[in-house]
């Protein structure tokens, strides 16, 4: 799916009914949420909840049993509490229905911050309103071939505190090891899917600092700590570069992302496209990943498509692959985007490949800063129980201190490697920017 194409079409009047966003890029609040607010009787731990959801989807078959389990996701569940639900029907000839459930965190300061930035509301609106309108628009286009259907898991129910999906592991999809960075083949599959996705309140704006500022600052502060305690050739230049983000760096990053001063048309960005938010269809014989779908639309926001590309390439892709192939992968994205927009939707693509490269370079710091998670952050997060975010007190402050404590434990053994890899990533940034200056 190319939501950027659809949004571009809406921007330029191609589809007058498809415009779920305000001019300033914020989600419409209005009374739309009355439709999606969850019935307080629908407890995510209750069998009756899922029976009601089945009825809402026209599934009237009597249910024999509903089994609700809590998965063992170590280091996950920072934005929600997950459950695995199996629905067994009275008619034994009907296959069981396997569901994946996300329930909003409800306790503590972090839960309040999640509500303030509309985390669940945005994903609920996407599946309940935005996606159906996109499908209606796309189906009216002569070249549409159903590409929307394979990009996201089927959603059975979406509200401001509960979202229920089909469990795609039973459809041959699997989550790859999140600690292993993607090679070119995998990256190409993700990039092509992202191009189909690109066409809400913007998370990359000052309003998002209360929640996302801490995540970014962890990367900056951790990198500064590593480079200062384990200096390596070139680390002084990187320290100087990073120190401009040492205090409230998130706000400074946001200044790189103005909606009214970028080369590309605005797209609906995923906002958190990394290893943990992609599932892959594995080849039945080789068991190698082929096509993929994206998960977790809680951070969708308006911006240049370069933002999603930067986040994915710097967080999820192998360093050597990114260094050698970054422009090729951006070109694959652009070509796939053009194929969807022009051939399948019959629209015009409103920006050039050079425009996309311009935004990529102008906004590259967001990739570099969040890329610190691929250098050392994943290892630190692996030692954190995500359910800690559902506790009293300042969860983000606790998270930051836990990451720093984890770094302290591994600094003696891996600090020099971390430092060298940070410098290596910085040199990539310099090379990308220098290439533009030399043209």
């Amino acid at each position: 799916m190319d939501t950027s194409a659809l949004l571009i079409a809406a921007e330029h009047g191609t589809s007058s009914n498809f415009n779920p966003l305000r001019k300033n890029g914020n989600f419409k609040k209005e009374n739309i949420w009355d439709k999606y607010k969850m019935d307080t009787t629908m407890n995510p731990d209750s069998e009756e909840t899922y029976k009601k959801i089945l009825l809402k989807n026209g599934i009237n078959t009597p249910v024999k049993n509903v089994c609700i389990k809590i998965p063992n996701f170590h280091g996950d569940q920072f934005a929600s509490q997950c459950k695995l639900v199996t629905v067994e029907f009275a008619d034994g000839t009907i296959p069981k229905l396997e569901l994946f459930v996300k329930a909003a965190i409800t306790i503590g300061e972090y839960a309040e911050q999640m509500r303030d930035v509309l985390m669940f509301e945005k994903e609920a609106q996407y599946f309940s309103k935005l996606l159906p309108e996109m499908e209606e628009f796309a189906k009216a286009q002569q070249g549409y071939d159903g590409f929307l259907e394979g990009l996201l898991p089927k959603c059975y129910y979406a509200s401001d505190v509960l979202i229920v999906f089909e469990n795609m592991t039973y459809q041959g999809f699997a989550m790859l090891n999140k600690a292993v960075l993607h090679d070119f083949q995998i990256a190409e599959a993700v990039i092509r899917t992202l191009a189909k996705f690109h066409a809400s309140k913007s998370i990359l704006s000052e309003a998002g600092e209360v929640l996302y500022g801490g995540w970014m600052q962890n990367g900056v502060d951790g990198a500064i700590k590593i480079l200062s305690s384990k200096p390596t050739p070139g680390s002084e230049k990187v320290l100087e570069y990073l120190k401009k983000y040492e205090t409230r760096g998130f706000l400074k990053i946001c200044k790189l992302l103005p909606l009214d001063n970028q080369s590309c048309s605005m797209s609906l960005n995923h906002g958190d496209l990394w290893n943990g938010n992609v599932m892959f269809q594995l080849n039945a014989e080789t068991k190698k990943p082929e096509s993929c779908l994206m998960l977790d639309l809680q951070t969708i926001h308006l911006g240049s498509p370069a933002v999603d590309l930067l986040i994915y390439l710097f967080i999820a892709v192998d360093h050597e692959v990114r260094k050698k192939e970054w422009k090729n992968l951006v070109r694959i994205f652009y070509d796939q985007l053009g194929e969807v927009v022009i051939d399948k939707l019959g629209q015009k693509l409103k920006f050039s490949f050079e425009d996309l490269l311009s935004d990529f370079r102008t906004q590259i710091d967001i990739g570099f800063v969040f890329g610190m998670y691929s250098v050392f952050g994943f290892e630190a997060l692996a030692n954190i129980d995500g359910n800690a975010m559902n506790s009293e007190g300042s969860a983000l402050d606790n998270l930051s201190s836990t990451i720093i404590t984890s770094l302290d434990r591994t600094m003696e053994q891996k600090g020099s490697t971390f430092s060298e890899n940070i410098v290596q990533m910085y040199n990539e940034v310099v090379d990308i920017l220098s290439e533009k200056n030399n043209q």
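The beta strands are 63-69, 81-89, 97-103, 155-158, 162-166, 173-174, 267-269, 278-282, 289-294, 301-303. The mean pLDDT is 80.
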